[in-house]
Amino acid sequence: QVQLVESGGGLVQPGGSLRLSCAASGRIFRLGWYRQAPGKERELVAVITSGGSTNYADSVKGRFTISRDNAKNTVYLQMNSLKPEDTAVYYCNGYVLSGMNYWGKGTLVTVSS
Known about the structure:
This protein is an all-beta fold.
């Protein structure tokens, strides 16, 4: 069974930074972060494979960094230069070899003055 638990969300001013964490259980081969703003569909933010290969949404390239600690089975999202449009619920996602995707319950990031 797979469980994902996010933490690190909160309120931050524009230009500020936050670091999100996702503690995972189970055998997960790809971990990632998605986000969903009010009234919008969930979108990909960043993903990282077990081998360390990463991909980012164009909207966050150069500002966000995804990383993975395999010893702790934890994925992180360092978010810098935050903008109001980054405001969303951020969800941790895990992909396993069976083809199933698993989701955390989400953590809210609010970027506002």
